[in-house]
Specification:
This protein is α/β, with parallel strands linked by helices. It has 2 domains: 2-135, FAD/NAD(P)-binding domain, CATH 3.50.50; 143-316, FAD/NAD(P)-binding domain, CATH 3.50.50. The chain is 27% helix and 24% strand. The chain has helices spanning 14-25, 41-45, 57-60, 77-90, 182-193, 211-221, 226-241, 256-263, 273-278, and strands at residues 2-10, 30-33, 99-107, 112-119, 125-135, 157-160, 174-178, 197-201, 208-209, 268-269, 282-285, 288-292, 295-298, 303-305, 308-311. The longest helix is centred in the last third of the chain and has 16 residues, at 226-241. The chain is globular. Bound molecules: NADPH dihydro-nicotinamide-adenine-dinucleotide phosphate (NDP) and 3-(1H-indol-3-yl)-2-oxopropanoic acid (3IO). The site of 3-(1H-indol-3-yl)-2-oxopropanoic acid has 9 residues, from α8. This is Flavin-containing monooxygenase. Keywords: Auxin biosynthesis, FAD, Flavoprotein, Monooxygenase, NADP, Oxidoreductase. InterPro entries: Auxin_biosynth/cation_transpt (IPR050982), FAD/NAD-bd_sf (IPR036188), Flavin_mOase (IPR000960), Flavin_mOase-like (IPR020946).
Length: 324
C-alpha cells in the first residue's frame, strides 16, 4: 500500500495536530501518522492527575483557537485534553493511528519524501510519499529508568513517573523520587500530601521559580534581553525562596531562561514542594550509589530503607537544545 500526500506529519501530539489543522485551513493535503491509538497520548495516558499547564493559557493555545475566556490562567490537564478534543474535531484533524514510523528518506530524483510505517494492527509495512515532512515527535515520549547498580535486588515497587497518577496507594509508604525536574518535584509534593514519607534525589543544580515568576519573565522576554530578564527573575526568586543551598539545592551558573534556550532544560516551577522541603516533610537526597535489597545507599554516605521508587527521569541525551 502506498499513499501520496503533500505534507507528512509524524506524531499526533499538540504540535502535530496543530500543524495538520493549519494545513487543513489552507486546503493543503496532509497525513498525520501516530504510533499510539489516540492523539496527545502523553496528555491522555501518561500525565499525573494534579498536573496543570505551567505556562499561562495564552502561551499554550494552539493556532486559530484561543482557550475560552472562562478557562483558568493555568489550565488543568483534563481541560487541556478537552480543548484538544474540540480542536481536532473543529479542524477535521484525522490521524492514522497505530502507525510506527520506521524510516524517512528524501528521494532526490523524485524530490519527494518516502516514509515507511509499521501498521501495528495488521503488522504490514506501509509506504507514504510526500513533498514535505514534519517530525513532531516531541522531546520525551519514552519513560527512562537509569541503570542503577542493584536495582534488580530492590524488593519494593519501582515505577516511572509516566505511570504515576496520584499518591493514593503510597499513603503509608517510604517513597524515593529520583529526579528533580518538574515531574519529580511535583510528584514528591503529591506523595507528601497523600501521607507518604517522601524523599527526592536532586543530583544537579536547578533553578526554582514559580509560575507567576515565569509568567513575568515570559512577558519581559518580548521587550528585554534574556540575560537581563534572568537577572530580574533571579533576584525575585532569591527573595521568595532564600538560599536553598542548605537544603541541598544549588542553582546553575547560567540563568533560567538562557538555560531553557540553550539546552531545553526547564526551571523547576514550584507548586509547594519547596516549603515542604524547608519544613523537612520532604527530604532531599544526593545521587544513589547503589541498592541492596530494600536499602538504598546514597553518594554522601547516607543509607535508608524504602518501600517504593518513582523514577522521574528522562533520557535527554539526544536533545540538542536550540542554537543561540
Ligand atoms: N505542568 C507542566 O507544564 C509540566 C511540565 N513538565 C515538563 O516536561 C518535561 C519533562 O519533565 P520531567 O519528566 O521532569 O523530566 P526532566 O528531564 O525535566 O527531568 C528529569 C530529572 O531527572 C534527573 N535525573 C536523570 N537521571 C537521573 C539519575 N540517574 N539520578 C538522579 N537524577 C536523575 C535529571 O537530572 P540531571 O539534570 O542531572 O540530568 C533531571 O533533573 C520538562 O520540560 C518539564 O518542564 C513536567 C511536568 C509538569
Ligand atoms: O514545559 C516546560 O518545560 C515547562 O515547565 C514550562 C516552560 C516552557 N518554556 C519555559 C520557559 C521558561 C520556564 C518554563 C517554561
Amino acid at each position: 500500500m502506498k499513499q501520496e500526500t503533500i505534507v507528512m506529519i509524524v506524531g499526533a501530539g499538540p504540535a502535530g495536530i496543530a500543524t495538520s489543522a493549519c494545513l487543513n485551513l489552507l486546503s493543503i493535503p496532509n497525513i498525520v501518522l501516530e504510533r499510539e491509538d489516540c492523539y496527545a497520548s502523553l496528555w491522555q495516558k501518561k500525565a499525573y492527575d494534579r498536573l496543570k499547564l505551567h505556562l499561562a493559557k495564552n502561551f499554550c493555545q494552539l493556532p486559530h483557537m484561543p482557550f475560552p475566556l472562562s478557562a483558568p490562567t493555568f489550565v488543568p490537564k483534563n481541560m487541556f485534553v478537552q480543548y484538544l478534543k474540540n480542536y481536532v474535531y473543529h479542524f477535521n484533524v484525522d490521524p492514522l493511528y497505530q502507525r510506527s514510523v520506521e524510516s524517512a528518506w528524501y528521494d532526490k530524483s523524485a524530490q519527494k519524501w518516502v516514509v515507511t510505517a509499521q501498521n501495528n494492527v495488521s503488522g504490514l509495512v506501509e509506504e507514504y510519499v510526500s513533498e514535505f515532512l514534519v517530525v513532531a515527535t516531541g522531546e520525551n515520549s519514552e519513560g527512562f529508568i537509569p541503570n542503577v547498580y542493584g536495582l534488580d535486588t530492590f524488593k519494593g515497587l519501582v515505577i516511572h513517573s509516566s505511570e504515576y497518577e496520584n499518591g493514593k496507594t503510597f499513603g503509608d509508604k517510604d517513597v524515593l523520587v529520583v529526579g528533580a525536574g518538574n515531574s519529580g518535584m511535583e510528584i514528591a509534593y503529591d506523595l507528601c500530601n497523600w501521607g507518604a514519607q517522601t524523599s527526592v534525589v536532586v543530583r544537579s543544580p536547578i533553578h526554582v521559580l514559580n509560575k507567576e515568576l515565569v509568567q513575568l519573565g515570559m512577558y519581559f522576554l518580548k521587550y528585554i534581553r534574556c540575560t537581563i530578564v534572568d537577572k530580574m527573575v533571579l533576584v525575585l526568586s532569591k527573595l521568595l525562596y532564600g538560599d536553598l543551598g542548605r537544603f541541598g539545592i544549588q542553582r546553575p551558573l547560567k540563568g533560567p531562561f538562557l538555560l531553557k534556550k540553550e539546552t531545553g532544560r526547564s526551571p523547576v516551577i514550584d507548586v509547594g514542594t519547596i516549603s515542604k522541603i524547608k519544613t523537612g516533610d520532604i527530604k532531599v537526597m544526593t545521587s544513589i550509589k547503589d541498592i541492596q535489597g530494600d536499602i538504598i545507599k546514597f553518594t554522601n554516605g547516607q543509607e535508608r530503607q524504602f518501600d517504593a521508587i518513582v523514577f522521574a527521569t528522562c533520557d535527554t541525551s539526544d536533545f540538542p537544545g536550540e542554537p543561540l
